Amino acid sequence: MLFVFLILLFTGKKLSEQLQKWSSSPTGEGATVRSTYHFYNPKQNGWDLMEVSAYCSIWDANKPYSWRSKYGWTTFCGPIGPSFPATCGRCMRVRSTRTGAQEIVRIVDRCSNGELDLDVGVFNRLDTDGVGHDQGQLTIRYDFVGCGNGFNLLLASIVDN
């Protein structure tokens, strides 16, 4: 770890930036897809994956509340990314190509239509002009990102400061 820190120090990169890059998609790729919305309503359902019958509840239902409630939820069946169950719990940055609004979401479910089904709350926050609601869909760019759950990002924060 010290060796990596020294290399980053020498190159002028922040450790947190490099760790975020290393924890992103192995290919660094994402895709632009259509997104509809799904009524998970995680807050009203106590952030309980079993309550909403999410596919990933098999693996993630017993994760701490802080983990389950950190980000909004989405299904994933996009054309680029890992397959299930490895996708469960991964995070993506989703951005409306029309409004530019963006948010990080956690994958909790799968679908079969080659797109995303964002929780309605996330969908509405990205649909800042209401056009997506009127059309019933948004065009979304997604990229896999780190979820910021671990020791590495805490360490990076300390080192960067």
Automatic annotation (TrEMBL):
One of its GO terms (molecular function) is RNA nuclease activity. InterPro entries: Barwin_dom (IPR001153), PR4 (IPR044301), RlpA-like_sf (IPR036908). Residues 1-16 form the signal peptide. Keywords: Disulfide bond, Signal. Pfam families: Barwin. GO terms for biological process: defense response to bacterium; defense response to fungus. Residues 28-149 form the Barwin domain. The keyword Disulfide bond applies. This is Pathogenesis-related protein PR-4-like. It comes from Gossypium australe.
